[in-house]
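User: I'm writing a tutorial on reading structure tokens. Could you give me a worked example: one chain, its sequence, then its tokens, then a sentence or two explaining what the tokens reveal?
Assistant: Sure. Here is the example chain.
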Amino acid sequence: MNGREAAVRALLAWEKRGAWSDAFLDGLFRREKLPERERALAQRLCCGVIQNLTALDFYLAPYVRGSLQSPVRAILRCAVYQLAFLDRIPPSAAVDTAVEMTKAMANPAAARVVNAILRRLTSAPLPPLPQGGDAESLAVRYSHPLWLTQLWLDRLGEADCRRLLAADNEIPPTALRVNRLRGTAEEVSDALTEENAAFSPLPPLPDFFALKEGRAADLSAFRRGLVTVQDPAAALPVLCAEPKPGMKALDACAAPGGKTFLLAQEMEDRGEILACDLHPNKLERLRTAAERLGIRSIRTQAADARRPAEEWKNAFDLVLADVPCSGMGVIRKKPEIRWKPREELADLPGIQLEILRSLGDCVRPGGQLVYSTCTLLEAENEAVTAAFLAERGDFRAAPIHLPPPLGDAPEGRRTLWPFEFGTDGFYLCRMIREK
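And here are its predicted structure tokens:
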């Protein structure tokens, strides 16, 4: 198996079973022992096709008549992605390998069709993608579903909508956060330099680095607990709460643990942190990571945040509610998210509000409740926190203070857009329970 075939198989697994392409490829790599170069090609092709799906189909549309078998469609999309978006792969290589794959994964007749389509596509320059500022043109140019494009166009206007859609199609670096319980940013920088890692500082926050190549897990600095993987935006729910040593805190939807670990760091690993999640296997991975980072103040418990234990009532100085969401702020990392059917998202705001209602009872008078998501949809963000605050007269939104250049949010709510600082998209709302 080579990288192109691996990419096609991942695309088929996503299309037919809804599999996450990165997880599918990881499993495939382990089974097939692909060389690093082929792994990198497979990841780039698979991610690139999903990121540019509508644009690729736009290029193919004049030459495709009728329906195509799923493998043939995936092979064609991979080939056109190479032709349109990659400049280091000769067109002949993209075409020839597509034809050979079609023979193996479909049949000779389909291979002749693929050959004819790709030869015609390479015989002249590709037509320009739509340039207009209407939702239909933007949806094709940046390969987003029309409903989502229209929603963001209405909210942001054309210029920022374009910036957001373009940001979704970028390839982000792996974000590393310094574990200050084990070392300073300078010490981590020295450690990464010693092992010849390709990295640079990652704005807008200090203590973050961008790993430009390779996997974090392969770094000695990672294995020794000097760093953990976390996007700067995901640190904000913890930082805005300004946690102090000795606090009693609840991270109610904790897995995979990034916010829990930062909470322990900001509390100097002194105090009580209860990390909860529905899935015990995720908590086991969280405990393993906490041990790697040298954190001792975390206790874990499998629990449903919608049904808090009786002993949690009025018990915590700080409650983090990083709730399950549609993920529309992390499209650049998981491009499949943009293609979720809209109807599948309809129940999320109700679940989020239910979690928030339950966790509100866990905050002691005078304590804090921080709601956050990695989505950019108002229905899951502003609408949920507004409904909660309207119901609960004992809670008020509290000002958020963030380091420059992020700035303050006096109204207690903040949406961070990917095009602002190159982070994930994120929403947070800080609330205080009145005494």
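What the tokens reveal: The first helix runs from residue 3 to 17. The radius of gyration is 24 Å.
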